[in-house]
Structures are given as structure tokens and as C-alpha cells.
From TrEMBL:
This is Large ribosomal subunit protein uL4. It comes from Porcincola intestinalis. Forms part of the polypeptide exit tunnel. Residues 43-86 are annotated as: Disordered. Coiled coil: none annotated. The gene is rplD. The lineage of its organism: Bacteria, Bacillati, Bacillota, Clostridia, Lachnospirales. One of its GO terms (molecular function) is rRNA binding. The keyword rRNA-binding applies.
Length: 206
């Protein structure tokens, strides 16, 4: 089991904690991590783009001019792609970008990125994270005391004082233990997590 330091909100080490190898000490599977990121980014796409082909554009039922004798190339419709107001060649149509991934693969990918944060010393455990009021400066002071700039802050409870205090900080995002995902952990680099949240993650994903 990996031992990591536990800090208070002033950035001082107050304890250590043993992390479960079942969650924070697995073999990193880069392929599954790649698939998980692809799946999440694909799920964010609406897929509602649409343009009309020549068969869908209204009008154009009559030949614009006679077949022969004009000196121009023969034309059958003013709604052909080469005309203004005509249809689009190979027009985009609505589609579903969803990539399927089973639960075991998702869990393995999440464990892989959590393990990588531990291996790279980018996982910071706090004994608690409580703010008396909604104040961005207080949240920034906590992160500065840990010498962390960008971070994903994982909470066990929906603490609005912390969530709203972190909202305006660039490169910082808060998440609950049931909303963490592979993409955010990779995007924000550092992970700041409370002791309670660590226990909850180990309960759910071990």
C-alpha cells in the first residue's frame, strides 16, 4: 500500500494515510484511459449538424434552359451543388457519436489515472476542507499552501462554500466522489482530495 502525507488547510503535514492498492495501486492501462477520454469527449458532441442535399432543397424542378444550342453545359436543375442556392455535396446529417464502454473498463480506467496521480506525486490529501464563508481568496490560500496551481478538488459532501469559492479560480474544478471522471483528472493535473473522500472512493471502486 502507498503511504501519502495528509495536510491541513495551512499546508502542514499532520498525518499519513495508507491508500488501497485496489484503487490507487493498480497497473496503469493507457489503452483504457485513452478509450475513456474518447468516450467522454464524444458524449459531449451534440451531433445535430444538418445541411440539405440537392434532393432536399425546394425548387429546381424545371430545366434552367434547353439541353442544346446555348453554348453552356447541359443542366437539369438550378438546385444542383454548383448553383447558388443548390444542395450540398455529401451534406452532414444528424448522427450519434456515442462510444460504448462497459462498466469494468470505465472503473479500470479511473483506477489507472488515480494510480498515475499517486505515482507522479500529484495527489494531495487534506484532513478536512471547510470554509466559513464563500470567499475565493480563502480557497486560493488553501491551494497556495499546498503549492498547487491547477487542481481537481474532490469532496465527499456537497459543500457550497467550497464549491462556490473555487468556481472563479482558473484551472480549478470541484467534483464529488460520485462525479469524478478520467478526463477531469487528466485535464487538471493535480488532485486535491479530503480524507473522507478517499475513504468513499475506496469503498465504491475497490
Amino acid at each position: 500500500m502507498a503511504n501519502v502525507s495528509v495536510y491541513n488547510m495551512e499546508g502542514k503535514q499532520v498525518d499519513t494515510i495508507e491508500l488501497s492498492d485496489a484503487v490507487f495501486g493498480v497497473e496503469v492501462n493507457e489503452h483504457l484511459v485513452h478509450l475513456a477520454v474518447k468516450q467522454q469527449l464524444a458524449a459531449n458532441r451534440q451531433g445535430t449538424q444538418k445541411a440539405k442535399t440537392r434532393s432536399e432543397v425546394s425548387g429546381g424542378g424545371r430545366k434552367p434552359y434547353r439541353q442544346k444550342g446555348t453554348g453552356h453545359a447541359r443542366q437539369g436543375s438550378t438546385r444542383a451543388p454548383q448553383f447558388t442556392g443548390g444542395g450540398v455535396v455529401f451534406a452532414p446529417v444528424p448522427r450519434d457519436y456515442t462510444i460504448s464502454m462497459n462498466k469494468k473498463e470505465k472503473r479500470a480506467a479511473l483506477k489507472s489515472v488515480l494510480t498515475s496521480r499517486v505515482q507522479e506525486n500529484k495527489l494531495y490529501v487534506l484532513d478536512e476542507l471547510k470554509l466559513g464563508e464563500i470567499k475565493t481568496k480563502d480557497m486560493k490560500n488553501v491551494l497556495d499552501s499546498l503549492k498547487v496551481e491547477g487542481a481537481l478538488v474532490i469532496l465527499n459532501e456537497n459543500d457550497q462554500n467550497v464549491i462556490l469559492s473555487a468556481r472563479n479560480l482558473a484551472g480549478v474544478k470541484t467534483a464529488l466522489t460520485n462525479t469524478i471522471n478520467v478526463y477531469d483528472i487528466l485535464k487538471y493535473g493535480n488532485v486535491v482530495v479530503t480524507k473522507d473522500a478517499v475513504k468513499k472512493i475506496e469503498e465504491v471502486y475497490a
